[in-house]
Write a structure and sequence with these properties.
This protein is α+β, with helices and mostly antiparallel strands. It has four domains: 5-219, Rhodopsin 7-helix transmembrane proteins (Rhopdopsin 7-helix transmembrane proteins, Up-down Bundle); 221-293; 303-527, 2-Layer Sandwich (Beta-Lactamase); 535-674, 2-Layer Sandwich (Heat Shock Protein 90). The protein is built from 23 helices and 13 strands. A hairpin with a 3-residue loop joins strand 12 and strand 13. Helix 4 packs antiparallel against helix 5, helix 19 (539-548) crosses helix 20 and helix 20 (572-588) packs across helix 22 (642-652). The protein is elongated. The chain starts with a helix and ends with a helix.
Amino acid sequence: MAIPIGTVSYAAAAAAFLFLSLLLMTGWRGRLPGMLLAAASLETALWAGALAYLAATPNVAMRSAEVLEVLRSAVWFAFLMVLLGYSRKAVRPLRLAAAGIAAYCAAVLAATLYWGGVTAAQPEMLGILSRLLLAVIGMILVEQLYRNVHPGQRWGIKFLCLGLGGMFVCDFYLYSDALLFRHVNDDIWAARGGIDALIVPLLAVAAARNPKWSLDISVSRRVLFGSSAVLGAAVYLLVMAAAGYYIRYFGGNWGVVLQVTFLFGALLLLFVTLFSGTLRARLKVFLSKNFFSYHYDYREEWLRFTRTLSEGEPGIQLRERSIQAIAELVDSPGGALWLSQDLGAFEQVARWNMPSAKEIEQPDGSLCQFLDRRQWVINLEQHAAQPEFYDDLEIPDWLRSVPRAWLVVPLVLHDRLLGFVVLERSKGKINLNWEVTDLLKTAGRQAASYLAQTEAARALLVARQFESFNRMSAFVVHDLKNLVSQLSLLLSNADKHKHNPMFQEDMIETVAHSVEKMERLLFQLRGSLTLGPPAPVALDDLLRRTVATRSALKPAPKLETGDGGMSVVAHSARLERVIGHLIQNAIEATPPDGRVVVQLLRQNDAALIVIADTGCGMSEQFMRNRLFKPFESTKATGMGIGTYEARQYVRELGGRLEVVSREAQGTTFRIVLPLYVPQGAGELGVAMESHG
């Protein structure tokens, strides 16, 4: 009578594991991993022997073989968990995971003793599902062991992971096939014994390489998050498969249709869930709270923070990257950056997934004073509920109106407030404790140093450009001096040769050449003038002169003065030059058949000058990064300082310069200047109102 192949296969596995267990017990040195490895090998030998007997006598039902299979997996799990437990950093998560795995193994063992496992008729699919999940747990533990062991010690652990991984993969393949076809494949079942026998040499080599089993292992948060997601997806698919089988079994004629529809919907829901940023953020918070003593893996967070700041070209979009780097620490989907500008006010200079805001926060305001004095991270929700916690801090109205505003992170450099970042509400429910706020404050200081270094480099570059510009001015002055010398020579010879026709012709030609050259030099020269004190300037007269000097150009600018009699305190020549430059830019950016309109309006206690055109417009990136930067120009012969000078001078007058532009639609500049009120005019107006 021929011996069944299953008997030979499992008998070989039993003999191999029994021999390995004897070797391990004779060489055991008192350490727990070695004892568990010997126990797992002996348990596997008993299980393989029981299955060999079962293969030889197929008519005999052996519930003990089912029980031994569950115990085999449980002992191997205990061995892997002990190896992982040698890391002091992971005591709490491993204890929780071990408790969960032990509870599941106990439940499967109880069900096997009660129902009989996969051999019983009614709970057959439940038994297959339970053993399939045991195989999934085993693969995850092997993966955790290999990925978290120190790279220098993987030489001693790789054969153990290869052997045990192969054993659990074989179990997974067997029960996946059984779940698909609703019965255990006899050939795969018989081959499992031979496969298990082949892994014994791998385990023996691993045991020889690790006589003390003292491994340097640490559990990575990122790997734990990935493994948790894989485990959750596996459990979800197993539950959905069982539900689909139930629908098909009890669905009658509609069973197959309902099963296919249900499984497709389940897979669609799984993919939507896995790609949900909110769910991922909440899972990270849950794992950090329950599996680690600290909320953050500081090594990973700081590497990611530094990598985000240093990506791309130096200085390009560093402000946006700074917002993103800080926001990612708390899973915030967006934010905006305010930095101190030339006159000390804090303006929004960059944003990331957040609406633009034009409000300016003054350095003497309550918000900036609090951030500079306390250097705290402000939780706007906590301030709304417990304002006394923040002393006398008053949140500005513009900040209250920002949609989903959550945190205000100060950017401090050398104990001085450089700026602040406003973050949107996190996608996950993060407990804003001392650890989170300390990390945000430290990240803010780091980002401030990056930003300050970049701003200093830009200032140095501008200073060098101004130095080069001054040298160019010196050459221009030298050329003008030569021209003056030539003209002086003509004058000195005029009395002697003024009646000579040839001299007259040469003089006219020389003067014409000198005028042409001086006009060219003056067009390039941008020098400072010695100005007297500022005085009241009538805006309607000034705009009328400025527009009239450009009336011969195409398109000719049109002036609309809604309100007359408005004056501002300024240097007339300089203000005319600033406004004239903006009008000139509008004309040059507009085709001849377009329109350039200059308007003078009253806006409360300020004068509003609007310069609108229908030209080519500007992109948002150009306006943010280049428009007001000195020596940045799109013109071939432009110096790039006109718009910069315009904004600087308007700020000196206590006003502001705003710009709105859209590509291919046009640009609108708005100059807002405080009106000049003569002394006594205010009291006279009040008296007339009281008498009226």
